Amino acid sequence: MNTKAKVLVVDDQAVNVQLLKRALERENISVKTASSGQETLDLVDLDPPDLILLDVMMPDMDGIEVCQRLQLDPAKKAIPIIFITARSSKEGKLIGLGAGAVDYITKPVDLDETVARVHTQLRLVSANREMLDLQRRLEESRRVAAVGAITSGIAHNLNNLLGIVLGYLDLIRLHADRAERVRANADNLDTAVQRIVAIIRQLTSLMAQSRLPSTPRPLNELLSGALLRFAQELPTASPVSLINDLGNLTIPTQVEMFEDSLVKLLFNAHESYGEVYSGLRPVRVRVTLKDSASGTKVLCVQVEDGGLGIKSAIRDQLFEPFISSKNTVGVGMGLTVARQSMRKLGGEITLADNSGGGATATLIHPLTDSPKSAN
């Protein structure tokens, strides 16, 4: 059932109020009335209308002041106001429109014209609400799609890994009398289990809503910690060259999230050379300061590689869960988790092709303890 539109008619002259009230009610519009500025504010507090017809000239508080007060409240600012006044000068209309009114009607009021203008504004209100509702439903659909993609990816990866675990268990049982084969299969089993643990850890980080506390830490310590972790987790990787002209700058951060994000970018750079590449895989980390959009300085950590660049097929989906150009089981959330982590710290991660080949991942981190960025 359609809900009636609600209009608040405000005028200190009772006859004017009654004329407008009857005209609008004939149009199936619900009408409330007020005779003063303060009564108007009180009624809007109790039951916000869809539209206000507001007399400008009132004794205690004129319509301009009422409009200005409503404009100060974000919850009421969107209520359209049509001024009704005896003033017909251009200056008077500009003052009213400047105060936040959407339209201006001069006295004596033409009821047919007024009703037509009211209907126009109510249609705009309805269209705006439909647009906001559509935006809300689109956002909800995106969230549902993201959850679906994550759930599908997790199920696929965990099923594959569990298959590997069961396979190695069968091999251990089959060769229980051969210690070397048992040890080798047990090592492979441990690797598969660690991948399962990593997926669960990454999912927990991805879905966490609260922002972890940050502490001031030396930049050199953060960088060296990330490079050490990368070398320990991938001993076969080529040494990473580091260019840091900022000295031992101190930044407020969450150490685990910062280091883990940088390690994931280093893994991405190493793997960008492709599985068949057998030579050195140079990766360079360059640390600088840059100006943010707001004019403040931010830390900029660039991870540059000379690999194959960004595949066009996944260019627009790089940061979606389980999007990966690799065939290894249990991968595909690194960039997603890294970006999510940086956004929780008030920063960002981007990835772009280099003009001479390869790609550069850029980690942006605030130099102050920023509030959590929106996701």
Compact summary:
This protein is of the alpha/beta class.
Overall description:
The chain has about 375 residues and is of the alpha/beta class. About 45% of the residues lie in helices and about 20% in strands. It folds into two domains: about 5-110, Rossmann fold; about 210-375, Histidine kinase-like ATPase, C-terminal domain (Heat Shock Protein 90, 2-Layer Sandwich), CATH 3.30.565.10. It has helices spanning about 15-25, 35-45, 65-70, 90-100, 110-175, 180-205, 220-235, 255-270, 335-345, and strands spanning about 5-10, 30-35, 50-55, 80-85, 105, 215-220, 240-245, 250-255, 285-290, 295-305, 350-355, 360-365. The strands form three sheets. A five-stranded parallel sheet has the order 2-1-3-4-5, sandwiched between helices. Helix 3 links the parallel strand 3 (about 50-55) and strand 4. Helix 2 packs parallel to helix 3 (about 65-70), helix 6 crosses helix 9 (about 335-345) and helix 8 packs antiparallel against helix 9. The radius of gyration is 32 Å and the shape is elongated. Mean pLDDT is about 80; it is low at about 320-330 and about 370-375.
